[in-house]
Amino acid sequence: MDVRDYLHAVRRHWWIVLVTVMVALGLTTLVTLRAQPRYAASVTFFVTTPNQGVSEAYQGSIFMQQRVKSYVDLLQSDRLAASVVERQPLGLTAEGVRSRIAAQTVPDTVLLRATVTDTDATRALRLTEAVAAGFVELIKQVETPPEGRTAPIKVEVIGGPRVGSTPVSPQPLRNYGLGTLGGLLAGVALAVLRTKLDTRLRDAISLQRATGSPLLGEIPFDGTARTDPLIVGEAANSPRAEAIRKLRTNLRFVDVHEPARVIAVTSALQGEGKTTISCNLAIALAEAGWRVALVDADLRRPKVAEYLNLESSVGLTDVLVGDVQVGDVVQRWGDKSLLVLPSGSTPPNPSELLGSKAMADLLVVLRESADIVIIDTAPLSSVTDGVVVAVQADGALLVSQHGRTDRGQVSAAAHALQSVSVRLLGCVLNQAKLGKADAYRYESYRIEVPAARSAPSGQHGAFLGPDRVADPTQELTRLPR
């Protein structure tokens, strides 16, 4: 992942970062309020060598700096702590005293500083006084040579002991700063981890990579689509309707040299919106003047007739078994040049029926009777019906829903089509989360075309073949029983 991927992960899961920061600040507040205030008292020592000549100053300085470093351990030794307990019996053990003492040297000097921290300011000061007296005495005992000679090192107190009037801990500002930083880093890490572990499709780029095909459309999320799936009435001016029109335009120019006139619309899983897109795409094509035939070939869970409010008791299955002719059951929808062939009765063998010669003959008649044929097929992950239909079409359109489909499932669906040499025209991301700029509402834009108009001769688009009769139902009666 590069920097842009990290930023994208944080922007997508911003709520994780926010919640993590809030939790970190809450824990910081709890710790800060429950922490007992601690006070610090300090004392500074000066270490020197008495009776030192000028010629020995440099060597003496190096010797003293090295010596001072060892005194840090002496300040925190058990011996000094025991002597402090003897001097100031404050109810503390030698270990308790030693744990309260911290020592450090002042760099490049012979100064040594000791700090005593305690929850009681008075006790901290008294302990520091005892530490100062005890340390000076300890150095005399340790450094004094035998036979009464003068000690080569002398330690004097030059600063303190003194105690601060305000506690050194807790420090609310520092704690909140560290808590915010820690929460932010943890939130970013969780957001990136969630992005890596979440394999569901959430953007167009991932969908293109999974299918290996071009993105032909992004249908924005619309809360009213569940109750009003069709782009008619007020919905005709919605961003969703405009996205369908953009999909219509992109389909026309997928391959102008080899236009697809029979298109199978499918998906990896059930409930991704393939039927809605099939119906709306057929409506958009009919609005533009194309003669469109919409076939419901999802024989297991047909929805086309329900969405379009048409009779569905007799339809495709009845035509395929030879009970009726297609011209007798095809239904015109609205005032547009859109003919709909419902699924009909539910057969016991959908795959065999869709792969029969009768289905191939039906597609030949539909191809000659309409400019474009849209076939709504079954999902690819559960049954083979979709592949059986797609093989007989000029190409397939793969629909995936934002946040629902796994990348592996989409990739497997695309591979299932490509393994049988189905031409994958492209993919569509349904219920996409688009920004305000992408979801611009075209309030005044709508294509209005006379319902039964056919394209003029010699001006056919990528879908349109030779001129045919104005009424497609005259051609549909050619299918043999």
From TrEMBL:
GO MF annotations, alphabetized: ATP binding; identical protein binding; non-membrane spanning protein tyrosine kinase activity
Domain Polysaccharide chain length determinant N-terminal span(s) in chain numbering: 1-85
Main location: membrane
InterPro entries per the UniProt record, alphabetical: AAA_dom, Bact_polysacc_biosynth/exp, LPS_length_determ_N, P-loop_NTPase, Wzc-like_C
Keywords: ATP-binding, Cell inner membrane, Cell membrane, Kinase, Membrane, Nucleotide-binding, Transferase, Transmembrane, Transmembrane helix, Tyrosine-protein kinase
Membrane topology, as annotated: Multi-pass membrane protein
One of the Pfam families matching this protein, by short name: Wzz
Protein name from the UniProt record: non-specific protein-tyrosine kinase
Source organism (scientific name): Micromonospora yangpuensis
Taxonomic lineage: Bacteria, Bacillati, Actinomycetota, Actinomycetes, Micromonosporales
